[in-house]
Write a structure and sequence with these properties.
By secondary structure, the protein is of the alpha/beta class. The chain has helices spanning 53-58, 133-149, 161-164, 178-191, and strands spanning 10-11, 14-15, 19-20, 26-28, 36-42, 82-84, 90-92, 98-100, 107-108, 111-112, 118-124, 158-160. It has one domain: Lysozyme-like, CATH 3.40.80.10. The protein is globular and about 50 Å long. The protein binds zinc ion (ZN).
Length: 196
C-alpha cells in the first residue's frame, strides 16, 4: 500500500514520487499552456485491476491476443500523463510539459483539442465500482502539487473526460466522488499541504 499523504514534488515536469515509464505517445504543446486537469478512468480488461495491460497500451505493446476486447484498441496510440493504481501508487508516462494523448476530440469553454492545454490523470477503475481511499489520497496530493507548479490549473479548471467529450465518454463515471475530491482539495490547500 502506497499512501501519498506528504507533499509531492515536481522536478523537470516529473513527479518524483511516481514510477517513470518510457512512453512515445506524446508531442510538443505548441502554445506551452497547461491550464486544465482532466480526470479519467481506465481498466484493462474492463473492470479488472492490477494487470500490466494499461502500461502495455500506453507503451504500444498491448497484445491483441491477450483478451477479446484488446483487438479493437491494441493499435491505438494513446497515453496519459499519470496513472493512479488501485493502491494509490503513481505511474508517470509523459512529462507534464509535453502533450499526452488522453482527451481525443474534446471541447472545454469553446476550445477544442483539450490535449493541447491539459494534463490527463487516469484512475485505474471503471464506471461501476467505487475508487479506493488510496486513490483519492494520491489524486489529491498530486492535484495540489500540480496546482502549485502550474498555477493556471485552478480548482475550477478540473474536469472529467465526460465533461469535455460528453457524446463519447462517461469517465471517470458515476462512482467518482467529486464532492469528496473537491473537499479534500480545499482542505489540503487551506492547510497549506496535502494531509489527506
Ligand atoms: Zn477518459
Amino acid at each position: 500500500m502506497t499512501t501519498l499523504n506528504v507533499p509531492l514534488t515536481i522536478e523537470k515536469h516529473r513527479l518524483r514520487q511516481a514510477r517513470q515509464v518510457a512512453c512515445d505517445n506524446h508531442n510538443e504543446r505548441t502554445e506551452g499552456e497547461i491550464s486544465l486537469l482532466v480526470i479519467h478512468n481506465i481498466s484493462l480488461p474492463a473492470g479488472e485491476f492490477g494487470g500490466p495491460f494499461i502500461e502495455d497500451l500506453f507503451c504500444n505493446r498491448l497484445d491483441a491476443d491477450q483478451h477479446p476486447s484488446f483487438e479493437a484498441i491494441a493499435s491505438l496510440r494513446v497515453s496519459a500523463h499519470l496513472l493512479i493504481r488501485r493502491d494509490g501508487s503513481l505511474v508517470q508516462f509523459v512529462p507534464f510539459h509535453r502533450r499526452a494523448w488522453h482527451a481525443g476530440v474534446s471541447l472545454y469553454e469553446g476550445r477544442e483539442a483539450c490535449n493541447d492545454f491539459s494534463i490527463g490523470i487516469e484512475l485505474e477503475g471503471c464506471d461501476d465500482q467505487p475508487f479506493t481511499n488510496a486513490q483519492y489520497t494520491s489524486l489529491t496530493a498530486t492535484t495540489v502539487a500540480l496546482m502549485s507548479h502550474y498555477p493556471d490549473i485552478t480548482p475550477s479548471r478540473i474536469v472529467g473526460h465526460c465533461d469535455i467529450a460528453p457524446d463519447r465518454k462517461t469517465d471517470p463515471g458515476p462512482y467518482f466522488d467529486w464532492q469528496r475530491y473537491r473537499q479534500a482539495l480545499t482542505f489540503s490547500i487551506e492547510g497549506g499541504h496535502a494531509t489527506r
